[in-house]
Amino acid sequence: MRAFLCILLAALVKGDPCPSGFGDYSEAKCYRRLDATSFTDCSVQCRGIQASMVCIESEVQNTHVFDVIGVNTQCCSWSDQSCCAWIGLSQSVTDQGTDQGWDTWDKSGCTSSLRLWAPSEPNDFNDNPENCAVMGWGAAHTWFDTECDMRAACLCEKDAAELVPAPPPPPPLPPSPSPPPSSCRPGWVSAPGEIGQPDKCYKVLEGEPKNQRDCAAGCHNAGGSSICVSSAEENEFVSTLAGVSGECCNFQDQSCCLWLGLTQSVTELDGGGGAASNWDLWDSGCNSAFRNWQVGEPNNDPTYTGAEDCSALTADLFWYDTPCEMEAACMCETGGAEPPCPEPRQPGGGGGGTSGGVVFLLLLIFSGLAGTVGFYEGKDQRISLGAKALLAKAMGKPPPQPRSQTQPATITTPTNPLPTLYQAPMPRFEGAATPLATADSAAVASAPDLPMAVAVALPDGRA
């Protein structure tokens, strides 16, 4: 059906489905006649014009070929064979009888089983090697075997379906988007997309195989940790990246088996629940629940006298518990590139406010002044409130409110009064016994959010 539509389309577009030099269209084939020549030369000349010798697939086609050549008795007889027509059939086996081996068509892909032999043909007449087929002897539409070097009419054919121009190729696909730049440090490999952890990076530690503890230490020194496997895809990826293979991961050689970051948090020697219990401690601190133990593992292999408290990945992609002293390949992982250094805070930028260092310095100044002068809290409330306001600002609390002027001061008799030198009499406040420096020091000591304590020296050297 498709071939028919192609032919119809070509006919509608061109009016003739045959290319230049070809014609006599019939049954989806086009033909071109060449000069009389031998069977072999006819085959070569047809191929030179991207065609082939005729392949007869029906009696209708056989008649059409006969008519195109114009076979007649004057030029297809004993005296002249120039208008006998070569057909592309020849004998593949020539030593098993004259009627055997007639199965080779010059046209590639031709499987026609049609045979229109004349009576008593093929016959190797007079024991001549007649291994090629020709049409038209005596102006008959039947076939005869004849010698291949006879000069007869050469007819080439092309399938009309081949003449329909092939549709233009589809436009090229747009280029694949470039992968995002890797966030991994130099020497580390990014996790593939199927793992679903785009910020994860891996690094195989070069050098000699290591025991599990040296592997973990090497990873920590490299800025990472022993690998934590979270899926079957990641399990296969790390095996491939590390080059795990049966040649170096077997009972005799474990140099390319791969350490996992998984160990027993409580071992049998520590009173654990057995070889299969407490496999929950990942070196990286991850919480992966993925496990890919081989059947029967973990088992603390009874043929080994020590403990098998560490785990390794082998060439079959399964996990085994193994002695931590085993020497194996080491791979590290990290969450990605090192975090960038914090931006310096700009004046007036986010956070704002007075820095802790400035507040601390101001508190020292206020407290020192208050201690040196020896003002009482009640003598000049403004200084005390200023210090407390700074404290409140540093602690993120509202500033204190001044005491009502109408509230009478509480007069107490000091049990250990300060020297008279620091008790200058003032109207209405002679009995106040708490020095400002002491009050502000107490306020500082009671502020839990301050980064450090503020020590205030009293004038007589007491702290």
* Measured distance between first and last alpha carbons: 109 Å
* Low-pLDDT segments, ≥5 res: 3-14, 336-355, 372-383, 409-463
Oligomer: single chain
Please state the average pLDDT score: 76
Order the strands across the largest sheet as they lie in space.
1-2-8-3
Percent helix range: 10-25%
Number of strands: 16
Number of helices: 8
Q: What is the helix/strand order?
A: HEEHEHEEEEEEEHEHEEEEEHHH
Percent of residues in beta strands: 15-25%
- The structural class is alpha+beta
**Estimated radius of gyration:** 52 Å
Main β-sheet description? 4 strands, antiparallel
Shape: elongated
Summarize the structure in words.
By secondary structure, this protein is an alpha+beta fold. It is built from 8 helices and 16 strands. Helices cover 21% and strands 15% of the residues. The longest helix has 18 residues, at 356-373. It starts with a helix and ends in an 18-residue tail after the last helix. Mean pLDDT is 76; it is low at 3-14, 336-355, 372-383 and 409-463.
List keywords for this structure.
463 residues, 21% helix
Give a quick rundown of the structure:
Helices cover 21% and strands 15% of the residues. The chain contains eight helices and 16 strands.
Q: How would you summarize the topology of this molecule?
A:
Blueprint: H1 2-14, E1 23-26, E2 29-37, H2 39-48, E3 52-53, H3 59-69, E4 85-91, E5 102-105, E6 132-135, E7 143-146, E8 152-159, E9 189-190, E10 201-204, H4 212-221, E11 225-226, H5 232-242, E12 258-263, E13 281-282, E14 310-313, E15 319-322, E16 331-334, H6 356-373, H7 381-395, H8 436-445
Antiparallel strand pairs: 1-2, 2-8, 3-8, 4-5, 4-6, 6-7, 9-10, 10-16, 11-16, 12-13, 12-14, 14-15
Helix pairs in contact: 6-7, 6-8, 7-8
